[in-house]
């Protein structure tokens, strides 16, 4: 059944970094805020340590297979922050000067590392981002650091949003952190938004946006069944003066494409210039005897390594190639990563095999040694090759299974520059980890699901050129005043590092402009500039959170 239209000052689509941050500030400033999230509302007690169908793992993820690119993202209240590994580096300075395929600076001239740093600082305070000490890194991270040193490279502990005093090194944080060590948005911005009156509605999937006769917006949604995401149990409409799209780079452009018939022509860049953040994975099978001999490692029981399953995701990165003096498409980071069994064991390949090895004797042999695996995550500069085709009738993809799996309309054909950048990074991983016989290395195959990303970006990107960017430098959709995009869609291109910190900083930066736009539409709202205090318990969905004292905010350009 269809409910009568409701109304709110601000309607936020999605509850990840771009949605939670903007929802909090606008609610704290006095606006009525409603957040629609297509996924379930899971709390710390819901996070399970298994990969069974129907567990928190399959309920909280969205895996969409496209043509040449597959996207793995969050699908729950808190979005990607619930399932990410909490690595929070800032983008290198050279990233903001990239030209990519358009022959001109992709980022708006108003944004560079200097102007974004104050907003990075705010996110670091709100999410308690700290640089790990060597005592905090996982054993796998330590092995990667030792291998880098052995081959004449450097290694760096990653800054993370993880409370090490609460972390048990269970390595299940990708399925949600039940110990509340990972500082997901469930522990700060979202409960703070609720304490200021924001309403969060899980299992509400936005389908399209239309316009009211007064020039405001109507957001049309379906209610999704809690067990089978293919089933719709209702629908409704909410009217709002301001709409903030933060559904993720794989869903935000699809909603806008589906809305074009009602709203009018979309900017050319909506659904174009998609970037997978240049991501790629290599698996090394460590020779335990060589790890002991070459790296002098010993866990105290005569074992050198064999701890693939113990840790907390990425803890150590090699950043030697993040050098602004190097030419574009030759700069990348190499990051130790734990990728859980399942997709990882399928896509990991047998070293030395010419063709993809899905099964067989050789694959069985390397699976026996899975505890001695080390996965290296590469982030290069890709060329924004992704394009979204016509949108499906509902949702961001054609849902295949009751949870998690869908078929999307994204087409991705990597250009020569992207392919060569992957090859360079693969060669360096191989050089580092195969030195003196330490391991055997093989990149994951792209033959089954194409390239893959857990950090989709740039499908509705910011910029100064109206032809190659969908948003202006305030995150407002060109030609559609009052609609803003604050998720990874807005980031113009690959960052060569994990993007969560940058997405969050851009969302913080966008808030003053959104407040001004809301004021122009008669909404009684102010920008207070306070940050949410940390929360230790996500089990309640009506937490009272007292914001921290006002923190002077930078002025957005």
Please give a handful of descriptors for the protein shown.
557 residues; alpha/beta; seven-stranded mixed sheet; six-stranded mixed sheet; 20% strand; globular
Topology summary:
Blueprint: E1 6-13, H1 17-28, E2 33-36, H2 56-60, E3 61-67, E4 69-74, H3 80-83, H4 113-126, E5 130-131, H5 139-150, E6 156-157, E7 159-160, H6 189-195, E8 199-201, E9 204-211, E10 217-224, E11 232-245, H7 252-263, E12 279-286, H8 288-295, E13 316-318, E14 333-337, H9 343-347, H10 361-368, E15 373-379, E16 387-388, E17 398-399, E18 405-411, H11 416-433, E19 439-443, E20 451-453, E21 483-485, H12 500-520
Parallel strand pairs: 1-2, 1-11, 2-8, 3-18, 4-20, 11-21
Antiparallel strand pairs: 3-4, 5-7, 6-13, 9-10, 10-11, 12-15, 12-19, 13-14, 14-15, 16-18, 17-18
Helix pairs in contact: 1-6, 1-12, 4-12
Outline:
By secondary structure, the protein is α/β, with parallel strands linked by helices. The chain has 12 helices and 21 strands. The longest helix has 21 residues, at 500-520.
Describe the structure in your own words.
By secondary structure, the chain is of the alpha/beta class. The protein contains 12 helices and 21 strands. The protein has helices at 17-28, 56-60, 80-83, 113-126, 139-150, 189-195, 252-263, 288-295, 343-347, 361-368, 416-433, 500-520, and strands at 6-13, 33-36, 61-67, 69-74, 130-131, 156-157, 159-160, 199-201, 204-211, 217-224, 232-245, 279-286, 316-318, 333-337, 373-379, 387-388, 398-399, 405-411, 439-443, 451-453, 483-485. The strands form 4 sheets. Strands 1, 2, 8, 9, 10, 11 and 21 form a 7-stranded mixed β-sheet that branches. The radius of gyration is 22 Å and the shape is globular.
């Amino acid at each position: 059944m269809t409910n009568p239209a409701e109304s709110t000052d601000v309607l936020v689509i999605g509850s990840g970094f771009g949605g939670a941050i903007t929802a909090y500030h606008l609610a704290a400033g006095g606006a009525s805020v409603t957040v629609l999230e297509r996924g379930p509302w899971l709390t710390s007690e819901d996070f399970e340590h298994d990969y069974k169908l129907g567990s928190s793992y399959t309920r909280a993820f969205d895996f969409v297979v496209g043509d040449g690119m597959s996207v793995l993202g969050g699908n729950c209240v808190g979005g990607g922050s619930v399932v990410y590994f909490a690595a929070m580096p800032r983008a290198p300075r050279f990233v903001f000067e990239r030209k990519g395929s358009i022959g001109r600076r992709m980022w708006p001239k108003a944004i560079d590392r200097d102007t974004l740093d104050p907003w990075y600082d705010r996110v670091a305070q709100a999410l308690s981002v700290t640089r790990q000490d060597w005592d905090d890194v996982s054993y796998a991270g330590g092995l990667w650091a030792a291998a880098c040193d052995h081959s004449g490279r450097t290694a760096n502990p990653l800054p993370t949003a993880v409370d090490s005093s609460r972390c048990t090194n269970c390595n299940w944080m990708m399925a949600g952190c039940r110990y509340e060590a990972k500082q997901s948005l469930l522990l700060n911005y979202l409960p703070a938004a609720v304490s200021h009156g924001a309403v969060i509605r899980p299992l509400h999937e936005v389908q399209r946006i239309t316009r009211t006769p007064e020039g405001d917006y109507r957001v049309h949604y379906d209610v999704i069944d809690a067990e089978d995401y293919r089933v719709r149990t209702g629908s409704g409409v909410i009217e709002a003066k301001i709409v903030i799209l933060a559904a993720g780079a794989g869903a935000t452009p699809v909603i806008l494409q589906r809305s074009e018939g009602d709203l009018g022509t979309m900017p050319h860049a909506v659904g174009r210039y998609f970037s997978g953040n240049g991501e790629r994975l290599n698996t090394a099978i460590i020779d335990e005897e060589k790890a002991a001999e070459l790296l002098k490692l010993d866990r105290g029981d005569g074992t050198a390594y064999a701890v693939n399953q113990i840790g907390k995701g990425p803890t150590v990165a090699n950043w030697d190639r993040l050098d602004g003096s190097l030419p574009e498409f030759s700069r990348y980071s190499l990051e130790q990563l734990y990728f859980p069994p399942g997709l990882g064991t399928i896509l990991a390949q047998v070293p030395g095999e010419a063709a993809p090895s899905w099964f067989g004797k050789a694959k069985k042999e390397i699976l026996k040694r899975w505890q001695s695996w080390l996965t290296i995550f590469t982030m290069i500069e890709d060329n924004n090759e992704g394009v979204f085709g016509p949108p499906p009738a509902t949702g961001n993809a054609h849902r295949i299974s009751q949870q998690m799996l869908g078929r999307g309309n994204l087409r991705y054909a990597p250009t020569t520059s992207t392919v060569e950048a992957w090859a360079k990074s693969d060669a360096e991983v191989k050089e580092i980890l195969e030195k003196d016989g330490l391991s055997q290395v093989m990149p994951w195959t792209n033959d089954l699901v194409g390239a893959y990303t857990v950090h989709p970006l740039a499908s509705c990107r910011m910029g100064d050129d109206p032809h190659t960017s969908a948003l202006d430098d305030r995150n407002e959709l060109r030609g559609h005043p009052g609609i803003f995009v604050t998720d990874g869609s807005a980031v113009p291109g690959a960052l060569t590092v994990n993007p969560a910190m940058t997405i969050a900083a851009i969302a913080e930066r966008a808030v003053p402009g959104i407040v001004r736009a809301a004021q122009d539409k008669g909404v009684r709202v102010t920008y207070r500039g306070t940050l949410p205090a940390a929360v230790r318990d996500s089990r309640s969905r009506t937490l009272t959170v007292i914001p921290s004292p006002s923190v002077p905010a930078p002025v957005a350009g």
